[in-house]
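Handout, section 4.2: multi-component inputs.
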Amino acid sequence: MTRAPSRLTSAVLAAWALVAVAADAATLRVFPPAVHLSTARDRQSLVAQLIETDGLTRDATGAMTVTVDDAAKVRLDGRALVPLADGDTAVTVSVGDQKVSVTVHVERAGQSPDLSFRLDVMPVFMRHGCNAGSCHGSARGKDGFRLSLFGFDPEADYHRLTREQPGRRVNLALPAESLLLTKATNAVPHTGGARLKAGDDAYATLERWLAAGATNDPGPTPAVVAVELHPRGAVLDGPGATQQFTVLATYADGTDRGVTSLAVFLSSNDAAAKVDPSGLVTAGMRGEAFVMARFATHTVGAAVISLPKGLAYDWSPPADAGRIDRLVDAKLQTLRIVPSESCTDEEFLRRASLDICGVLPTSDEYRSFLASPDPKKRAHLVDQLLARPEFVDLWVMKWSELLMIRTVPNQVSYKAMLLYYGWLQDRIQANTPIDALVRELVAATGGTFSAPATNYFQHERNTLKTAENVAQVFMGMRIQCAQCHNHPFDRWTMDDYYGFANFFAQIGRKQGEDPRETVVFNSGGGDVKHPVGGRVVPPTFLGGESPDLAGRDRREVLAAWLASPANPHFGRNLVNIVWAHFFGRGIVDPVDDVRVSNPPVNEPLLDSLARGFVESGYDFKKLVREICTSRAYQRSTRPNATNAEDERNFSRAQLRRIRAEVLLDVMTDATGTQNKFKGLPLVARAVQIADGTTSTYFLTTFGRATRATACSCEVKMEPNLSQALHLLNGDTVQQKIRQGGVVQRLLEAGRTPEQVIEELYLRTLTRKPTEKETAGLMEIVGTDPAARTPAALRETLEDGFGAILNSREFVFNH
Amino acid sequence: MPVCSGGVDRRSFLSVGTIGGLGLSLGDYFRMQSARSDPAAGHPGKHATAQSVISIFLPGGVAQQETFDPKPLAPVEYRGPLGSIETALPGVRFGEALPHTAKIADKLAICRSMTHGEAAHERGTHNMFTGYKPSPAIEYPSFGAVISHDFGPRDNLPAYVCIPTVPNEFAGSGYLSSAYSGFSLGADPVDGKFKVRDLTLPEGIDPARFDKRRRMLDVVNSHFREREKSDSLDALDTFYQRAYGLISSQKAQEAFDLKQEPDALKKEYGRNQAGMRMLLARRLVESGVRFVTLTYGGWDHHDKIEKGIKSQTPAFDQAFATLIRDLDRRGLLGSTLVCVTTEFGRTPKINPTAGRDHWPKVFSIVMAGGGIKSGIVHGSSNATAAEPEDDPLTVEDWATTVYDRLGIDARKKLVAPGPRPIEIVDGGKVVEQLIT
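Output:
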């Protein structure tokens, strides 16, 4: 071992970042950038990639010529380097007139240590699926033989292989007769079929280990500390284009090892890019895929983009773009997508009013906005909307969902819930920096009446669930899986889980003076125990350190870390939640499912927004302003030939159904009516309902969150039959139209039917009806004034109003 | 990721066609799917024995010992406080709380070896509604949604109806479009004034006026339709089409109208939640609904199981026995598959609070009709109802059998977003002993 353990960066780097280095000529890259070979058994294959000037990448692995500087140190076997003698040398890789030199370090070339059970044999079980949950990794094993799920318990696996049924699974006298081999090759019938072929590398590994006595490791083996996947991305030109990938693992003792033949490869989108067990990626239809390699407990990935072959593309982003647009456009350029044009002023007015304030513009606001010649009127509109109280209401509602504000029988009384809601409202109203709010919440102690933030620990009293909620809401991570086993597609282990949960182990609760009040305090004692062996894992930040807690309230320490720049996920998660509100999908989506295998569609964008947000002191309004004034937000929903299939890179606006509360509010406004919600005055809006358990048929049917869980999936946007029936036949639309009397008043004011139709369009769809629409509706209304009574006219126009409120254009934000 | 059951090469690849391969956009794909779900196109496969399914789910996890798998010979702490009775099947005993069901046991297939490993309510429920273990990465569609996807509406009636409401979050459409989600009544049939919400024209609105409203809506929609294209828009369109179909069809309206059932029959079912829900379920499958799911009661008897069973079971017992008899009398039992399922079973031993806790290792479910053998006991649990003894019945095998009876090959792949083909059921087998 000589290699200094470098801080390895995650290989999760977007492929299109490669564009930045595209220069005048194609650039050759060779992976790994340096080779370390230790022991005679070590091999390292080289992979080469050409980055063309247009940003496309080509696999140069097959085309490369490798020459060894010092042939006494290493030799070439195919494209693998094989050690010969200790020392340093270099190899030169050339493709065409491009040359790259790779340093090679060889040590212990004379030694050939025995195979290790943990380092060599265990990876075979993972790679070939033997210890997967559907096979022997199942908690009860399969067909009588059990392995630990994804190999979390090698000692037990060794025992079961060699000692559970002596002589059956391993046969030391005749290794090739071991059931371990004969089952794996299906020579003896195996439910799982043939997983190995006699003579392949994995088979040879098992056979050698058996022949050497099937020994256990004499002591602890170095853990895998990092895994890298090279190259870091690819932009492939046409179906069938390929790129070879290679996987490198680094161990705690500083050694590294090529593990391409031991890693499990997966693609998030086989249709766009398939990956075979050798790490060869083949492009398919146009699209993006995240190619992942899993080895030990690590999963790493690389973004692969498949483009149609020889796709012509000629679009340059505008030079005066702001930060958001620069980063969004850079991705679009790599994908060769031209974004949609800007939306109209009418569309912007409706979209921004709904998104920022949950309201529709009045017809007067419509007229003055359209008439304004100010070139900066869109930015000014955003500022005006940000200053309105409805903006606060909307975000108090969003936060109420995250904080699960609701009454819970015998746990959170109506009074406590109201105080909790009021606490939140005060802070959002005062534009309190979000980090301060979260610190106050997570560290809250005191009575649920006198210190209402403590209700956060009342609606959920289970320690583990509380920890899961905090991770999901404030870091966007679902750590639930790690409660029972190491997460197969993410980094979290059971130790991480119980270490994090232990911050919440010392929450004390006692009855307050008022029987409805509970006092939450720091009990100063107790721990959460790891279910394997009942160990106590010291409180540890997720992905961070174990802080010194002597004499301190654990939650205070956690809160200080959680809502600080030391926790990179905090800022990223918040900006992602805000982004998703305005675009209908997050940069990571869903917003609360951040994991290695669900990477952001635009990492530089998320990173830059998060940094900016933290540097601004968590200035929420500033973030909203930046998003809403970007070109990306102001795009039209109408696709062009290049972006019709794109729904995730913000190349056009997406149609978004208006959420339940806002839909009811804007219907109420448009019809000039009011609603009565439990505990609220008549003027109150649905957005202002404090209690998650208060609802109406309309709100429930259109998917209002019950706030029973922290999941972002609580707010449902899917249409269903009941919604259609309710808008057509139910008591909301027609009753409101009749009660509000809007049509009646307009007719009484002397408006013609055509003028009434125009006014109805303006107050609902924020546009004037087209001539065709007016004509079509007037045909039903009847154009001959003599042929209709005033009552019939009113009735028909009210039916037209109902039709507008039922229309797709009304229920969607576009 | 390799799978245990042999991999794709060994099995016939029955993909409905990945989107990518056909070069379709998701929007086209969705339209194609809705075209497939056209009433005319919707018909069960050739060898289908069942035309429809009534799924009765008992939330909380009903104790097998007190219902379909009593252990009269076990020590009292295992046997529990309740006795057992003879049934129409010689040598087969039920819990004493099921006298009516005992009399029709010869119409049932009693599965006493159902097993899965999920001891938490939501995980057990997930298994029984989707046929899959919960996954953090994929939301699976429920039986009703898959059936709705494959068959589509019939006679203007939704393919999948939930009585009285969608019972839980796993009864949804999962990765399939929400177009396939269940239609919930929004009212309980036991309510004297029961009327499916918003199904009939409001007072004072005649069909002519309703038609005028519809024409106006067409005018307003056409502009947007020409300009915009999106899956969510299409889905909403589908529901408006269905809503119009439902509102304008007399026959469809009548399917939901319990008033048309004679009082004597209502009495036979029992004028309670269980009875009226099951009666409406029968009316719905008779009229063309493919999959009706209904829940009854709360069976999470951690404490005082005797009291719990005695209060919950009689209504269920009467209603369920009547449902089977009623279907049989009408000649519908042969084409209607009825399932009584639950989240999991309960612990072999009575606990210190005189109840039983969660026990997923073995429990009982019951099936009847629709091409399932009648008068059989499938599988068994051991002497204390702690482990399956013979023929363990996995969720996958049970689900595959249910789909098979409807003529759906459960190995077929549906397309989840990605696009990602996923089997309807992963690795199940049709249980030959259960089918006719």
